Predict the structure.
Amino acid sequence: MSEVKGFTGGQLSFALSGIGIAWILWGALVPGISDRIGRKPTMIGFTTLSALAPVAIISVDSPGLLFAALVLTYTGMGCFTLFMATIPAETVPRHLMATCLGLIMGTGEIVGGFIAPWMAGIFSDAFGLQVSMFISSAAAAVVVLLSFALKETAPLKVVMAR
């Protein structure tokens, strides 16, 4: 990114530290918000917002503004807790919980840690570095669409619906 944006090492470190701050901030806030407003609206809202983070990386050319944009839009880290553990744990029977969580996390590691980066690299080599960011945004958009199909599992919301 320093070559593409022209950032110095220090500027790049500062800008990308926004991701770490966002991870801590949203990692705590998103699950808490989902307890109050429900899993479904939280997933829809925060994954929509997270689709903007890769766009910010492509389009923002100021280290300070990129830092701020990443802190505000890198909300997907908070959603990980919801879709990888909380929602499945609230959905499946108790005796299947460990198997379900292991399957979700294993699939996530294979697809998200191996297949998607490999494919993003191939497409980036062919069409330019920005393609990997568009793939990230598209993946977040897919999660938004899938989130519309979620059945609400937040205990407070489930009790209120009865």
Observations:
- DSSP finds nine helices and no strands in the chain.
